[in-house]
Amino acid sequence: MASSTQGIRPGFRLLITFGTAAAGGLLFMFIALPVPWLLGPMVGVLIGSNIAKRYYSWPGIVRNGGMIVVGYTIGISLTATALREIGRQLPAMLLMTALLLVFCAGIAFIVSKISGVNYRTVLLGSIPGGLTQMVLLAEEMEDINITIVTVIQVIRLMMIIICVPLLIFSPLFAGQPAAEEFYDPASASVSASWAGLFPNIFFFAAACIAAGILGQKIKFPTAYLLGPAIIAAILQLFGLQAPVLPAILLNAAQLAIGVFVGLLLDPRKLSHKWMTLSLAVGSGMVLLGGAYALSYLFAAFESVGASTALLSLAPGGMDQMSLIAHEVGADLPTVAGFQIFRTFFIFFAVPPLFKLIFREKKTESSAIS
């Protein structure tokens, strides 16, 4: 069977994708929606690719480039003061991460009973911030519907990216401080000049790219984000002056990541489309509500701003939540610290824990039978 993209040049498909993304970003900026260069390209490409899938493509290297930019921005925000504050908040990180995962497990149980989809599938689809890890884990386990896991994860991610900025700018957050900041990347990026990048940007760029590639080779979680973040923080702590990136580079990074997320969802591949979509949207809404409730506890106990608390606990991707934190002026080190902690916790602790629990249940069932 001939490929649906046969006869369409890759360069033309890339141009169509970029044009759609740019149009979406400009439209969202014109109507003054929050985080326009992340949300606009994501929504535009989602619609366009589901109308004419064969005309859309986005190389992984472009998305990785966007993640390197975001990783660098996170890294230079991790000053010595910010790192000490993150260390002080480690108990809160563990507690909030555990509460969020327990909440996810409860949601999965209820959704499983209502929908008839087996609990393992819904649970793996509901775990926040670990799309790649959960899909890989689903492939290793029995009785898992990988398509449903992927769709729930993708829709949850899209809902968080769209709803969290709207929620932060809604009346619910009116009059509440964005953050108690150690670093103000939003204002810094506006005033940053191209001339101020040189020559130090060459050292940071080479180090960040190398760290991303190395991290990918050693199977580091979210390698093209965490690798640059870590190396940029280290270089800065050792005294190398880190230049702030101009806003246009951060907008380009948002576009690169937004397009990638927009291309993830293809409803036409679902066998039970409406049931699966309803399942994913419903569980995503409840999960967002739980994160919102937990953010109030976090803000009260740690004395951080409301938007910082929500972005720290929002069950979205670390790159997207960091970008939103940057745009709304939240405390980026705190948001990044919580998201990084949850990423590592999910990457290292959750898969072996799930395998142990499900293996024991299988053994018990075999013994009973």
Task: Tell me what the structure shows.
With 369 residues, the protein is an all-alpha fold. The protein has 17 helices and no strands. Helix 5 packs antiparallel against helix 13 and helix 6 runs parallel beside helix 8. The longest helix has 30 residues. It is globular and about 60 Å long. The termini are far apart. About 3% of the residues have low confidence.
* Low-confidence runs: 177-187
What string, H for helix and E for strand, traces the elements in order?
Answer: HHHHHHHHHHHHHHHHH
Mean pLDDT across residues: 81
User: Based on helices, strands and strand pairing, what is the structural class?
Assistant: mainly alpha
Portion in helices: over 70%
The major sheet is characterized as: none
Radius of gyration: 21 Å
Principal-axes shape call: globular
What characteristics describe this protein?
74% helix; 369 residues; 0% strand; globular; 17 helices; mainly alpha
Short précis:
This protein has 369 residues and is an all-alpha fold. The protein has 17 helices and no strands.
Topology of this protein?
Elements: H1 10-30, H2 36-51, H3 60-77, H4 80-88, H5 90-115, H6 119-126, H7 131-140, H8 146-168, H9 185-191, H10 200-217, H11 223-237, H12 247-262, H13 273-302, H14 306-313, H15 318-328, H16 332-348, H17 350-368
Helix pairs in contact: 1-2, 2-12, 3-10, 3-11, 3-12, 4-16, 5-6, 5-13, 6-8, 7-8, 8-13, 10-11, 13-14, 14-15, 14-16, 15-16
